[in-house]
Amino acid sequence: MKTRTEKDAIGRFPVPAHAYYGIFTARALKNFQLTGIRAPRVYIQALGLIKEACADVNCGLGLLDKRVAKAIIQAAQEFSNGKFDEEFPLDVIQAGAGTPFNMNSNEVIANRANELLDQPLGVYVPVHPNNHVNLSQSSNDVTPTAIRVSALFSMTGLVTSLEKLSHAFKVLAQKHAGLIKVGRTHLEDAVPMTFGQEFRVYATMLDKTRKRLMNSSDELLEVGLGGTALGTGITTHPGFQKKVVAKLAKLTRFPLLPTEDMCETTSGMNVFVAVSSAVKMLAIDLVKIANDLKLLNMGPLAGIAEITLPEVEPGSSIMPGKVNPSVAEAVHMAGYEAMACDYAVTLAAQAGQLELNVMTPLILKNLLGGIALLTNTCEMFRKDCVEGIVVNENAVKALFEKSLVTATALSPYLGYEVTAELVKEGLATNKSIVYVLRQKGFIEDEDLARILSADRTTKPSVTDLTLKGRISHNEKYQKYKAELKQL
Q1: Is 432 tagged catalytic?
Q2: How many CB atoms lie within 10 A of CB 153?
Q3: What is the pTM of this model?
């Protein structure tokens, strides 16, 4: 491979002859080969927008030649739009504070700007990576700002995917609003509910988490660009911060605001912990829902099998015809991975020392990685699983009819002890609670049907005191209750 030789404070180093990046990137590329994972495209986009905003404002303040500024702006736009993604090859785990990433963008944009000005690569005249592209900036304010902007872009996609997934559960809830089923606690039969209520729970969970995600994103709008090395703003024009944040807001179309304390946005990373925590909450929701769907799908013949999940692939290399809940399993694993990402962000945020947190590359990797993972997960979960769920009404009704879950509705009329004894008898004889009661003769069939109706067993209802009085004076009931006291 043909190379050119560039020089820095350490010495000379070879750079691929046709590379738009320079010596800093070449050194970092040699030093850091850890994960094989590059920066996400959205982060490259954010860096390009920051460089464009800075060049424009520096030019307006008379700090940058107009001809040079114009070339940098065009190069930064091309960089942001993806033209030079292959020239951004660095491992996402690298030197602290994201300095290699910042310099990678500076070098690419500088070389492209010089090319636009009919100059060769690697000469850095008239455009220099540090003196011109990085003017009024430091890796220490550029990197946190780029993470903020890229997270805002990414959260937009996540929120949209989450809304669609929630809507899919709302459709199922409406479709099965009247289908009564066995509700379960502790994995045991509990009380009646409707499938509409069960699916509605999932939609409500996701809607609440969507609000948390949106609320946590608000703090990302507070930007410390212009703080340079420590947040003091050294080497910047007094008017730079407000102007550059306003320009970046216009480019990103987010209502970005200049922070009141640039030192805090350089040193403190809790804003990313807050966002990551909200992403973790979504992971928790998704794992819980995926687990529930796997349980409800269990079977198809020897389990609950109240629902059937879409078949997406054969389930076994040895058992012919077996089909697994593969998508729900993948959701479960993705949720755990996102939780791990949150833990890494938490550790990175607390690792800040004195005036700088150098762990921003780790925050970048795991915050944006968790958001991207769950965005894809929500899309897959909706398209390949939730929208294709089939509720097996016959199985649901059969399980409900042979269960004793309606017993709780009888307790206000018969009392806890009597009802418990009837449940025990039903379990012992494998008979329904309705059958047992009919044999006892405590309640007329018409009254029993009213007590055990869906309206009274799946939502709040007022106890019929007149009916309760009739039952309490029933001779068979009184005799049965007296017999229980003697046991």
Answers
A1: no
A2: 21
A3: 0.94
